[in-house]
């Protein structure tokens, strides 16, 4: 159990003892439908093997169906086989399995207790769906809160995170998906108790499995997109070490502008891609020019000013970038038509390119480079306002000024750079990113 503090191991032991006590019959002589417990436990165990390996999910509908159908001790037993033999990727395997079994059993016991206290089992047994909704909703809230509290306690002890903030974040993030799982569990329980029986009830899980598969495919595709972008950004950072972290900060500033303008989430995601990859064309520029300490000659500047077109060509085959590619190509255009590579003016410049242009110039001014010192944030914003209408779109400058004034500017700072906002002399006009002032 290396890597896990002793206090966290003690916490796991306490939760495990609590879960074990919950699985014992609370009243002598209570009849337990063991065949139902065994069937639900088998479905949960089999589903966990597939769900955790393929979908990184868990079969909460089965656990909640057990909470709606069974007495609390019997419902707590449903989670044990599946959790104890589930797929675990990190060591220590046994401790993680015990923890998973203990927290699941305890959360299900609390949910079943809440559901039974509110008369939910009688409503489920009578297939009275409207009457079963309120007890089921309360049980789902208790189940979600229990998981958040137990996981939050583990994170607080193992990693030293603040308990209240962690528990609140876990609860809010899991409430929506667990509520959907609770509805599926309720439908399973009602069908189970109806004349259609357990076989028909378990068919409710089929559309849930399909939705998990679709969701998993989406996440795999998204992970592939992120890996593609990371590889390109790392290549640029290795080639142009002085701008390390610049791409991520431009992506962050571009997203801030997009949100302030009220753009939808899809376009904000495109802006993030555009900001991160706006300088990917530097891969086609000789390294000696990117790392040159002195002023650039006119010929050298013309070579560097080809990087937007190089970037557009490099990303030509990456279909998911969408309009981000136009931002990569046109982020050095100026609204007065004096920019490059094509001298577009005003509305001819794509909107996403106008956003990235402001974000790029803002970060260039607030970052220390080999040839310039960082300006204070307020000085950089003032320079952007001065150039609004000639170099930059006034809407984008106003949006950035407003959001930075309200929320501040807190970018990720790498070891090679000083923190933005520190008073320093104004940068020299020879800007390697191409933002000429």
UniProtKB/TrEMBL annotation:
Per the record, the domain of life is Bacteria
- Residues of the HD domain: 243-365
Q: Where is this region: Disordered?
A: 414-437
Q: Which SUPFAM superfamilies match?
A: HD-domain/PDEase-like
Return the Gene3D superfamilies for the record.
Hypothetical protein af1432
All copies of domain HD-GYP, residue ranges? 221-416
UniProt keyword annotations, A-Z: Membrane, Transmembrane, Transmembrane helix
Q: Which InterPro entries match?
A: Cyclic_di-GMP/3'3'-cGAMP_PDE (IPR052020), HD/PDEase_dom (IPR003607), HD_domain (IPR006674), HD_GYP_dom (IPR037522)
Q: Name one Pfam family in it.
A: HD_5
Question: Which residue spans traverse the membrane?
Answer: 63-85, 136-158, 170-192, 198-216
Q: Which PANTHER family match?
A: CYCLIC DI-GMP PHOSPHODIESTERASE TM_0186-RELATED (PTHR45228), LIPOPROTEIN (PTHR45228:SF4)
Q: What is this protein called?
A: Metal-dependent phosphohydrolase
Q: Which species is listed as the source?
A: Streptomyces achromogenes
